[in-house]
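Chain and backbone:
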Amino acid sequence: MSPIDREQLLGYLLGALDEDEHCHVETRLEREPELLRSLESVQHSLQPLKRVPRFYEPPAGLASRTCRRVLAERGREAPLPQLSPCPASSRGSQRFRFADLAIGLAVLLAAAALLGPALQSTRFNARLHTCQDKLRHLGVALTQYSDRHGGYFPAVPPQGRLATAGIYAPVLLEHGLLTESHQVICPGSPLAEDRQFRVPRLSEVRLVSGERAGELCRQMGGSYGYSLGYVQDGAYHATRNRHRRHFALLSDRPSLHMPEFQTVNHSGRGQNVLFEDGHVRFLESPKAPYSSNHLFTNDEGRIAPGTHKDDSVIVSSTAYPLFRNSHSEPAQ
């Protein structure tokens, strides 16, 4: 389900949405108390505008004083237009100045309340869409890999220093399907600030040792987590490309320190998910759409390979090790 942003709620309050979008927002408001609270917040931020008077009495001689000030600032004199002053008492002029100040403050407060979150939302949405584009390109690369390897996506080795979910990125790099390291960096992730990040080559990971080997394994997947495959009867099976619409293949990487292992990408508000058929969705919850499956744990509730071929488990390359007493065999 797509998120509803502050601009849509504002449009709903002002009656600026088309009929379908208005009905969609109204339906979501009935079902989601948190969204209703957001609507009330937007409505409250509009209250200062309701107190702005529509009509007010201008002070006497305002036009003449304005023209005189403009000409003085330009450093030249010119005949002033003969304007009839509007009758007003000094008390009325004072009332205008206070009212003018009140109006100005109300407008500034309303602008700050509305435009500040709107700018943040625009930046958030831009990063979200860039992330989705990157996942789509990675989906194309993974599909091309499966076409060249009997229909299978990159397998996660069950043993050794390459036994990490981030292995998908060095494998794509090795086969020329990944050209630049930034393709695995989500602009809404903390890793986007790391200008030194790069995807290591498989040969590099095999040769290094000690702390450096662990560091490469933890970072090789970039900002994304990858589906592990599954273990059945003690045998590991790589994920086969069956073009399933609801099988999660890649997503913003989960965090072990967040509730339900929610990603920290996109300010923790949800994760983009690439599904096996190539489409990408933003999910506010780590629950898979149209099912009760959790994106980041298997059917037994563990961060481990799936328990059957349709049990997708997205894991970050920071989760290591992942396998226990299993050996690798081709999937059937």
